[in-house]
Design goal:
heterodimer, A: 5-stranded antiparallel sheet, 14 strands, about 25% strand, globular, B: alpha+beta, Aldehyde Oxidoreductase, domain 4, 7-stranded mixed sheet, binds flavin-adenine dinucleotide
């Protein structure tokens, strides 16, 4: 443990209102602490620069999964294990459950939360591409009320977002509009389990008579934020799935990605493999 | 008399304590008044230390602070050459080099203090590659950046090129690898002028630490005591570096006048301690069109890092193993260990052999291709046979039949059928390629050359009045099962129950020096000494008329009681004697390099994903001849673990260096394979008893590290073989990023 523990403070409020009051009374001083699976890693390494936290763990307003006719509402504190155990999520939003099954291993899945994955905003986070292709919305709440924002656009740059210091993510909402779409995802990690993605893809599409009617494509680890590849989608939409379209899609995607070299992989590999993953999906669709 | 315990899956002696949490590792130990220590290290690779700045806001007067000036004896880690300081006095030679030590009772405050220290350093240019070191881009060690070089010559290599039908050349490279024992390093020390120095800690070799502390403190041997705590793995990583940590803990304790505990966390352990030596090998081979190997010239270089440490001996083993189990009429091996500004590379399972064997086993596949033979046929035509000689001129006088070993391994892995099946699969699949490949190799057990004679190991056994027998060795249980093996051997020799044997915890105050726990020597060399010491004890009782030829447990106990009553104690010691007819010439590097070898054929089956360039190992067959299996569960465990570790070496474990520092020093980014990445490992043994091992056993600990990497790369070549790809398949770890380059380049020049 490299952190100087006496410097840290963790409050456990009795309810959400009390937590939100702390965030709004001293904006930026207090930060949420959910499952702690990202924060504790930084603490242990002596790299957690922020020192004052409010535990959200167990607050009922942020837990549970609700099914409505038009949407499924997931509390921000929902863990990966809870998502995988939910029948409607598994049936209609399999890409999110698949991503949950790839995340760390069982211990992390029991503790890590979807809200934490979003707020932590790692470009390599595994569930975020799925949220992008499902056109998820986020409900953000503060002492002054709540607002709903589209998840696409939530991240404004590397580790920055529209979330205000007095706000927390309350729920994640998935519209039930994609029944019957072809769904596919794939994680390319550094190994088969307990791995950070080098590239990951979530995609859903709808095709008729070999023509792409609609397609949504999202990638992790290829840009400063999880990336919805809208330019590539536009190139593919309305096109017959053939070699020409596949080549055009591939070229468009390589243009749209902004991958980097880091300790895990190279920009070149990420771009090439992301393009291969797209081709693999288009060939499945044909 | 009881049924023999040899060959039985006896339960682990210390297993119950480990699974119930009773076992006490060094971090579980505390002493009254104990302080915690940390090491403050160099942020850069090379430079002159000009000053130390102690930052604001830290109560420095409460800290024990140790620098090079506080060293009571010699400021060097005594090992082979004494060039590595415990603490930098002026010149820094690698990143993470220890400069200053701190101790305090509050370990959290200690971390704050570590961060508050900055060094004024005048940087010097540093070198990080074998090429730069050989080219003397900077002179950083001695007169030529070379710690050690060897030359082995057999036959007339120069004459061979002229009448060769083919000359095949290749270049091969292997990377560093972290040992990644589950328990990071740690030591506790109590040290003062009156009592001397005592350390407890995680280690493989108590007497190495003992020797180092004598020099560091300039104290007589009996004033130094080294006790091994229960140790969570070593793999070579706790061979030499614990001498450094023990010294640091002891220096702090000496100055503080209080016990000091110094424990590394994973990040420090990975960044600062030793790794496997990276290597580069060039091979040039003359071969006839009948596939007969005529001659080979091998140029083998390893990166030793900034100090000599064990590089000379690692190089020696790599050099001797370089030519493989083949009958070369002529061989020349030139090798050298060079200096760079990396932290020193050190001992790691296999100790130089995995590097040079990788090169040869990849190279022979290239030779086979050139000649137009299958890899198996080429090897069959050239295997060493009894009566023939190795590269050092050692005559093989065991009845090893490598061709049958190869046949059996290919059969067990269904090699031929799979070859055909994979060829069909590959022709039809657009997403995957499958391949199968193998490697044949040998590994010498025990110290190289005259090493064991110099060590001159001693083992003792001691009986109590109740008929229990204690085995006294300095060899450590580090998870490999040595205490269990020693118990089986001693119980068998004495004809008493396994439960009647106790193994003394290695403690230099109580056990003789039976040498280090390294070099696949513990079962074969030390186990044999345990056997003869135990037989000696029994003989004493028989000769004294206290014991007959056959006896019960009670009769044995009664005999012990009577002997102790008459003579005060019942002990027996045994000292190493080299097998007859073993000669080694250290100058010419000729002779019996090892008492014996274990022989093996490993077969790997892989799938390469054409979308992601990832390689999956689908099946693995490990067949080896090991003399005698003492404990089938432990032996298979050694092989399975070694193969898994070598799969990491081949495909996953990539040390990322920046300016000489490992930057992926966390388990998130330094990728060892998980159980999900490792295939079923099918282990098979053959037994040709070795006369000088206990019940015929040879050493097997390092063997499984040698073969998997070349077998896997040979399988990958079989899967994706296309012209031009060979250059990319000459290096490990073979990451998907490299394979992508290889496959998308679609050629390149070979
Ligand atoms: C061993 C290991 C393996 C892992 N493997 C993976 C993997 O394979 N894939 C992957 O994507 N991730 C992985 N992770 C990362 C981690 O588990 C996820 O990012 C997790 O979802 C974070 O959730 P948490 O509740 O633990 O967040 P915390 O650590 O509690 O918080 C993370 C950040 O989010 C903020 N935060 C949390 N909840 C909210 C909220 N409701 N509103 C606003 N801000 C909030 C916190 O202030 C903090 O900044 C791994 C982590 C570990 C330790």
């Amino acid at each position: 443990m490299r952190a100087y523990l006496p410097e840290y403070e963790l409050k456990t409020p009795a309810n959400l209102a009390e937590a939100l009051r702390l965030f709004s009374d001293e904006p930026g001083v207090w930060r949420p602490f959910a499952g702690g699976t990202d924060l504790m890693v930084l603490l242990e390494a002596g790299k957690l620069t922020h020192t004052r936290f409010v535990s959200l763990w167990g607050l009922p307003e942020l837990t549970g999964i609700e099914s409505h006719d038009d949407q499924i509402i997931i509390g921000a504190l929902t863990t990966y294990s809870q998502m995988q155990a939910h029948a409607a999520l598994r049936a209609e939003f399999p890409l999110l459950c698949e991503a949950a099954s790839w995340t760390g291993a069982v211990a992390i899945q029991n503790r890590g939360t979807l809200g934490g994955n979003i707020a932590n905003a790692s470009p390599a986070a595994d569930s975020l591409p799925a949220l992008l292709v499902y056109d998820a919305e986020l409900e953000l709440i503060s002492a002054n009320g709540s607002r709903v924002v589209p998840y696409n656009g939530f991240h404004t740059g590397y580790k920055t977002s529209v979330l205000r210091p007095d706000e927390v993510i309350k729920t994640i909402r998935l519209p039930r509009t994609t029944a019957g779409w072809r769904q596919h995802s794939r994680k390319v990690g550094t190994r088969k389990a307990q791995a950070i993605s080098k590239v990951c893809l979530a995609t859903i599409a709808h095709s008729e008579n070999g023509v792409v009617q609609a397609i949504r494509l999202a990638f992790g680890s290829v840009a400063p934020t999880p990336l919805r590849a809208t330019a590539t989608e536009a190139v593919l939409k309305g096109q017959p799935i053939n070699a020409v379209t596949i080549a055009a899609g591939r070229a468009a995607l390589l243009n749209e990605l902004k991958p980097i070299d880091d300790v895990r992989s190279t920009a070149e590999y990420r771009a090439q493999v992301a393009a291969n993953l797209l081709v693999e999906f288009l060939e499945m669709l044909a | 008399m009881k049924q023999s315990l040899i060959g039985q899956p006896a339960h682990r002696k210390e297993g119950r304590d480990k699974v119930t949490g009773q076992a006490r590792y060094v971090d579980d130990l505390t002493f009254p008044d104990m302080l915690h220590g940390v090491t403050v290290r160099s942020p850069i690779a090379r430079g002159q230390l000009r000053g130390v700045q102690f930052g604001e806001g830290i109560p420095w007067h409460e800290f024990t602070i140790v620098t090079a000036k506080d060293v009571p004896g010699a400021n060097c880690v005594a090992l082979i050459l004494e060039d590595q300081p415990y603490l930098v006095s002026d010149t820094i030679n690698h990143p993470e080099e220890p400069i200053l030590l701190l101790a305090h009772a509050d370990k959290y405050l200690l971390e704050e203090a570590r961060r508050a220290i900055t060094f004024e350093i005048e940087p010097l240019p540093a070198i990080f590659s074998i090429e730069d070191s050989l080219n003397r881009k900077e002179l950083i060690w001695g007169e030529d950046n070379t710690f050690k070089s060897f030359l082995i010559e057999k036959g007339d290599v120069n004459a061979a090129w002229a009448h060769a039908d083919f000359i095949v050349e290749g270049e091969y490279e292997t990377g560093a690898q972290e040992q990644l024992y589950i328990e990071p390093n740690g030591m506790i020390a109590i040290a003062n002028r009156e009592e001397g120095v005592t350390v407890w800690g995680s280690m493989q070799c108590p007497y190495y630490v003992h020797k180092a502390l004598i020099k560091l403190f300039d104290l007589p041997p009996k004033k130094i005591r080294v006790v091994q705590a229960v140790t969570g793995g070593g793999f070579g990583g706790k061979e030499e570096y614990p001498s450094m940590i023990a010294g640091h803990a002891a220096l702090l304790a000496w100055k503080a006048g209080k016990p000091v505990k110094l424990i590394y966390d994973r990040a420090e352990d990975m960044a600062a301690t030793t790794k496997r030596h990276p290597s580069k090998t060039r091979i040039r081979t003359a071969v006839g069109k009948d596939g007969k190997l005529l001659a080979t010239e091998i140029d083998f270089t390893i990166d030793g890092g900034a100090y000599a440490t064990l590089s000379s001996v690692v190089l020696s083993r790599g050099t001797i193993h370089a030519a493989g189990p083949y009958n070369w009429p002529a061989v020349r091996v030139r090798s050298r260990a060079v200096a760079t500004n990396h932290p020193p590379h050190g001992a790691f399972r296999g100790f130089g052999a995995p590097q040079s064997i990788f090169a040869m086993e990849r190279h022979l596949n290239k030779v086979a291709q050139t000649v137009g033979l299958s890899p198996e046929e080429l090897r069959r035509r050239n295997f060493l046979q009894p009566g023939e000689t190795t590269s050092t001129g050692q005559v093989i006088n065991e009845k090893i039949d490598l061709s049958s070993l190869l046949d059996r391994a290919l059969k067990l892995s269904d090699y031929q059928t799979k070859k055909t099946r994979f060829a069909e699969f590959n022709a039809s699949s657009s997403t995957e390629r499958k391949g199968i490949g193998f490697a044949t190799f040998m590994h010498g057990a025990g110290f190289t050359g005259s090493g064991e004679v110099y060590l001159s190991s001693v083992v003792g056994v001691e009986a109590t009045e109740t008929g229990k027998v204690r085995v006294l060795t300095s060899n450590t249980e580090i998870g490999q099962g040595s205490f269990t093996i020693f118990s089986q051997i001693a119980a068998d020799a004495l004809g008493i129950d396994f439960s009647q044997i106790e193994i003394a915890q290695p403690d230099t105050a109580n056990v003789p020096n039976s040498g280090p726990t390294v070099a696949s020597r513990t079962t074969m060399i030390v186990g044999k000494l345990v056997e003869s010491a135990a037989l000696g004890l029994r003989q004493t009782l028989v000769a004294g008329g206290l014991l007959g030829e056959r006896y019960s447990a009670d009769e044995f106990a009664e005999a012990c009681r009577q002997h102790i009553a008459q003579h005060g104690a019942l002990k027996s010691f045994s000292k190493y004697e080299p097998p007859p007819g073993v000669h080694w010439d250290d100058e010419k590097y000729q002779g019996e390099a090892y008492g014996t070898y274990a022989w093996a054929v490993y077969v790997a089956e892989v799938t390469v994903d054409l979308t992601t360039y990832e390689t999956r190992v689908d099946d693995f067959v490990a067949l080896q001849e090991v003399g005698k299996v003492i404990n089938p569960v432990l032996a298979a465990g050694q092989i399975e673990g070694g193969v898994a570790q070598a799969i990491g070496y081949a495909l996953y474990e990539n040390v990322v260096w920046r300016e000489g520092r490992m930057v992926n020093n966390q388990m998130t980014n330094y990728i060892m394979p998980t159980s999900a990445d490792v295939p079923p490992i099918r282990v098979y043994f053959e037994e040709l008893p070795y006369a000088y091992g206990p019940s015929g056993a040879k050493g097997i600990g390092e063997l499984p590290m040698d073969g998997p990497a070349p077998a896997i790369l040979n399988a990958i070549e079989d899967a994706i073989g296309q012209p031009g790809i060979q250059t990319f398949l000459g290096q490990i770890p073979l990451m998907p990023e490299t394979l992508m380059k290889a496959m998308t380049a679609g050629g390149g020049n070979d």
